[in-house]
Amino acid sequence: xxxxxxxxMKISNFKGITKKEIDFNGKNTLIxxxxxVGKSTIVDAYYWLTIGQNALGNTKFEVRPRDINGNEIHDIxxxxxxxFSVEKNGQAIKFTLRRDEIEDLTQKQRAELKENxxxxxxxxxxxxxxxxxxxxxxxxxxxxxxxxxxFAIISNPFAFFRLNETNQRQLLTMVCGDVAxxxxxxxxxxxxxxxxxxxxxxxxxxxxxxxxxxxxxxDSIPAKIETHETYCDRYADYDKQIAEYESKxxxxxxxxxxxxxxxxxxxxxxxxxxxxxDESNITSIENKIKLEKSKxxxxxxxxQQLNKQKADNACPNCxxxxxDFSEQxxxxxxxxxxxxxxxxxxxTLLENAKKSYQMxxxxxxxxxxxxxxxxxxxxxxxxKLAVEMEAKRDEFLHVNTEVDRLKQAKKAQEQINLLNKxxxxxxxxxxxxxxxxxxxxxxxxxxxxxxxxxxxxxxxxIQFKLFEMxxxxxxxxxxKVMKDGVSYANINTASKIHSGLExxxxxxDYFNILLPIWIDEKESINTLPIMENQFICAKVLDIDSIxxxxxxxxxxxxxxxxxxxxxxxxxxxxxxxxx
Length: 579
Fold this sequence. Notes:
The chain is of the alpha+beta class. Helix content is 54%, strand content 16%. The two termini are 23 Å apart.
């Protein structure tokens, strides 16, 4: 097994420590002093160097010293250096680790930096004074020590119990081992239920959801059936009733169709009323006469103009006409004569057209008088038909509504039958799912008990509870440590340290390494278990243990004065000795 011991430690400008050198020489060491002398600061410095945390596991914490006003002190280097010795197979090697932190500022930024400002920082990492990047530095440390994820658990008895329960379970299972499924009774049955892919826990979770969903659906079916029963008689023969009503609908449709045909015939009779005489011929002739008269007047005006032009056309010297208008006058006179004849002829046509129209109008009026009597009879007959058709429509609507109601009732009846079948199917599925659930649950419970037994066999005074039974019968995972029947949260600090040391020993054996173990609050524990690790303990100095008994003084005032002097003497001092 590889054993790591701390030989020497140098601290500069780390929190409240300006400069400190400690020789551990690989021995068990006790650091004592009054409160606020820097005992815990040494522990924080150690973990800041090795894993970038403080003793509480925080990665973000102040490491820079501050002045009396609470401001960061600038232009200094925070540094922690440790010399380690590693023994393996009878051979020992020494190496030095160092981490320096400086302010990451340009010269201009440094000149402009205010006194109360917090400057950005940058760390530098060294192994045997050779510089490394943080990543390579950490990789080297894992080669020299172990996986840094477990460094604090091995070297700090409080570290494991600061993890959440899930991480605690995973670590315990990793170190102590797990129980294979095929080692548990009933594995083959569970394997058949779960298949090759899903784990029992996943299948159980799925079955739980499935059972809840099926139970919810099963419980809702009676209410659904009751709702459907308000719309139907579950034992009625709705097909027969619907067929009877649909037959009645066909009869009503035929009867209504016949009534519509009769009404159509009556409407057709009403449309055969006499055709009114057309006056368009008279209007056309009258328009032609107006046009011809207009032409006649035009020709007359043209003739007057021509005669006037003829009279005004004589030469003033000889009296003879200059232009000859006789031909134009002759043509115009013929046009006047022709237009006059056309007017007389069209007037004769107009008289004849008016006589003919009057004869047609007299005949039309006689027909209209006869049709009026016949139309009254038709209207009366249609009114009777309308009443009869309305009655048929009402009866049709009533029957049709009843068919719709019966069809809805039939659907409700069908839904009731489906729900009854679904209820039977769900009952069978529920029984099957519950059987599978119980089988898997027993398997998980048996396996959990086996896992707990394996883990707890690795400890002497502490026991882990990894499962809790819920009120609903579900098995919930947890990770609770018990010492002498008392939970970790309720045990005293000494018992917590003992519990943490048992954990540390387990991980030391698993990783085959012994790291220095730091124990703060050593005053709370009298004796440490026998372990091969180097112990470095911080303890508050008990002033009463080194001060004479009160009875040795003459008076209480003298006792208090002497005690005050002793406290002043020890204030700010730290004492380091081998245990």
